[in-house]
Design goal:
single chain; 269 residues; alpha/beta; Protocatechuate 4,5-dioxygenase, Chain B; six-stranded mixed sheet; two-stranded parallel sheet; globular
């Protein structure tokens, strides 16, 4: 089964109440995923948020609450945002299957109960507002390690092939110090980053993606890498050589790239 793995940019927390192109895309894409789940094509979602990382190398955490609460892990936004609720849920048997697969692949796995951060519940509320699809939240590897992210992606490939929808939730660019008002022109550095990234992306090579993370312009776009690692994990789940479809392209708050991608295995000759 060559089910794609996905990367979506969740942007600022107020994406959920902002009528912008990225919000409309996620809603539309979510409707497609809901249909696939209802048709029995998907078991559930495995989601990796930029806002949850493990603390110990080689260890991953899995949210173990059947119906986790949400946290408003942000400040300074419209009061309406703090009234929104999301009633997400997960299946214990799916968490057990996912943990077992990761354990068999050499990871240490711990189960924790924590409220969902906005990198999880904000996009999920748009994807599946009635929370019909079970979701298992997994942490990123410790210390924002690119090597560990690649390793995790390869581990998740087994679960993707068995019917889970892998979603990495982050941002293609994420330097909040260089963000600006919504709707203002995209700065030159962000457009240049986008152009350089497109060349790397179209090569369909995982090593090239990792090497791109050493470029000076990458460090300007990502002073820290946690918002890019969900993309790397999704790409790695498709293999060293992958096929990619760009699903969405836009900017929010001037310089936050809200792009989205689907990564698939390259068909064998």
């Amino acid at each position: 089964m060559n089910q794609p793995a996905y990367f979506i940019s969740h942007g600022a927390p107020d994406l959920i109440i902002s009528d912008i192109p990225a919000q409309r895309f996620i809603i539309e894409q979510g409707q497609s995923w809901q249909q696939e789940y209802q048709q029995g094509k998907l078991k559930g979602i495995i989601l990796l948020s930029a806002h949850w990382s493990s603390r110990t190398p080689g260890e991953l955490s899995i949210e173990n609450n059947d119906k986790p609460e949400i946290q408003y892990d942000f400040s300074g936004f419209s009061a309406d945002l703090y009234q929104i609720q999301y009633s997400g849920w997960s299946r214990p048997e799916q968490r057990k299957e996912i943990a077992g697969t990761l354990l068999a692949d050499g990871w240490q796995v711990s189960e924790v109960s924590r409220p969902l951060d906005h990198g999880s519940w904000v996009p999920l509320k748009l994807i599946d507002p009635e929370a019909g699809i079970p979701v298992t939240n997994i942490s990123l590897p410790a210390y924002n390690s690119a090597a560990e992210a690649v390793r995790l992606g390869r581990s998740l490939a087994q679960l993707r092939d068995s019917g889970y929808l892998i979603i990495g939730s982050g941002a293609l660019t994420h330097n909040l110090r260089l963000a600006g008002p919504e709707g203002t022109p995209v700065p030159d550095w962000a457009l240049e980053f986008e152009q350089q990234w497109q060349k790397v992306l179209l090569a369909g090579n995982l090593t090239a993606v990792v090497e791109f993370m050493s470029e000076p312009l990458f460090h300007k776009a990502h002073p820290t890498t946690e918002h890019f690692l969900p993309l790397l994990i999704s790409a790695a789940s498709a293999g060293e050589e992958f096929e990619v479809r760009q699903l969405h392209q836009s900017f929010s708050y001037q310089s936050i790239a809200m792009h989205a991608y689907a990564f698939s295995q390259t068909p064998k000759a």
